[in-house]
Amino acid sequence: MRRQGAGNLPLETCELYGREQELAEVRRLFDEGARLVTLAGVGGVGKTRLALRAAHEAQPSFRDGAWWVELSSLRRGALLAHAVSEVLAVVDQTTRSMIDVLADYLAGREVLLVLDTCEHLVHECALAADVLLRAAPGLRILVTSRRPLRTHVERLLTVDPLPVPEGEGAACGGADAMALLADRAAEAVPGFTVTDANRPDLVRLCRSLDGLPLAIELAAARLRDLSVVELTEKLDDRFAVLGTTDEVVDDAEPPWHQALRTAIGWSHELCTPAERLLWARLSVLVGGFDVEAARAVCADARLPEDAISGLLASLTDKSIVRWEPTGGGERYRMLDTIREFGAAWLRGLGEESALRHRHRDHFRALAQAADAGWTGPDQVTWHDRTTTEHANLRAALDFCLAERDGHSGLQMAGALWFFWYACGFAQEGVYFLDRALDLDPAPGPDRAKALWARGMAGQTVGDMETGLRLLGAFRKATADEADETAPVAAALLEGTCLALSGRQTQAAEALDVASRTPPSPGRYDAAWLLVQVARAYVHIQLGQVAEGAVVADRLCAVCDDRGETHARAWGDLLRGLAALALGRAAEAEAHARDALDGKRRVHDSLGIAMALDVLASATVASGHAERAAQLLGTADRVWQTLGSPQMGAPELVAARQACEAQVRQAIGDDIYETAFRAGYDSDTDAGITRALSRPGTASPHPEID
Hints:
Layout: H1 20-31, E1 36-40, H2 47-58, E2 66-70, H3 80-88, H4 98-106, E3 111-116, H5 122-135, E4 139-145, E5 154-158, H6 175-188, H7 199-208, H8 213-221, H9 228-236, H10 257-269, H11 273-282, H12 291-298, H13 305-317, E6 322-326, E7 329-333, H14 336-349, H15 352-373, H16 379-388, H17 390-402, H18 406-415, H19 417-422, H20 426-439, H21 445-460, H22 464-478, H23 485-500, H24 504-511, H25 525-541, H26 545-562, H27 566-581, H28 585-601, H29 605-621, H30 625-641, H31 650-667, H32 669-681, H33 684-692
């Protein structure tokens, strides 16, 4: 089954002018067997916009969709595979390298992967493309970059500016550049039209801008303040501006590069001093930002906090900043070329170091606030906020490593334990925690938190031995602390590592050290809830089902009092397992659906997969075998994103296999395969929504009545 529209391509929010030849060439290259096509050109020439249209056109041809990976905010090539896996929702739940996990995941799939803005990671992108293309015959990669990747499989398509009119009276030649200018001018000045009177000046404007789309957009935005004649005259009087040395496809600067530098520099010159300063300071924010971040990072005596909103609105009007309404509130973003100009200006002002420290401090505080609020009623909000700010959190941690600021790195990476452990970024957490721990070996509470976070992240990717090895160091680091949550955290780390290694009796002994009632608040508040999750699981696996159900019920009650979602969903899952073991199928279904809903809200892929498995077992026990097969298919689709369809503790894998055997026996292999494929091939969100609905009133399958 072909899943139409699969992928994450951004919406096309504006018309693409021209580029028919380039689009046809991209189609031709892929049709003729090209595996990797690079759209190369200077900044502002429209590579990203062209790639987006090409990807939308190609999307129906790829069974498993077209996926957009934006790399402009990524500064470390070591995290490239993690960025791709994040987009594909391939959660890092194994100890293998992420590039190997991706290669396995893509091996049997037909996917178009778009890597946008690769010029700062050319070497890393080339290596990754080589590995993935060798592993996945159905994979095609479309790249945008100012420089070629220079791999043997690459087919290069140079993107030039739009054709410009050849004379001031031209009406046809250069129509694409003129059409873009007219469209953007109408956005800036409602009712604007091209007339016989203004056409010569518009033609001159297109020619002076050399048909460069970004330059045209910046110029058009000034028509709010200037007439076409004034605008053209000002641009005719070019001046030198700060530029970059990394905006060319090869060693020779294209003749139109000066037009871009002039357009950006001229837009900068026409900004007020306060707008210029904010532009420069905003350049340290990556992957988008909200007003709160802009105020925290950019405001001071020269830029008062109460002026930031108005200045942002003004920069948006001038097309320097782009406004992006989202479900979580308003956010802003700068195009890479615009941001780079601001960064160069910031360096010239001598403020780069100070602003990057402010950026680090703001997002470290955000991480610490999220940690403090994780076990409360705002947990889902904190999950969504930290996920939205992932690029900025990553940039702040990168800065800590680059500055060899191990202490700040420990504080931030340790506070983000929940992000690594519960939000699907465990391998990235291992990367940052290992480096921060190496940089700052000095003992203290921040190092202790990072040690614990590293152990918890490690177990999430199947590395139990590291967690057990770090246990002694963590206990030693917290031995003199009065924090009652620290020994609970130690019991959690030991007990879960043992339980997930199949050593349930030892796990029970380790977990029993923790108190039966919640301790006083401390630095590890979530640990007590997660200990109860582990205790209930171990009881059930040891055959002590009634005891496990009691622990799970008590856990859910405490979570309800706190308004907590993540651990509560685990509690519901364990209640479902207990009900299944006690032969109460309908009760197990209800608990499994509650668990699935909770795990869906915090996007916990492992929990979603496990909840679907339990729901499938309960569903077949209730007499709905065909529906159970469909649930197994949806679960298998999620398990695939975790690195393997056979992941999980041995007991859970055995339960899944037993469920499959029971369903096959009830409805036969042919019906099973059809229902399984329907669940597997459908969109994951749609499959989860279907799973959350109760079975219809139709009679269950007669074979199991």
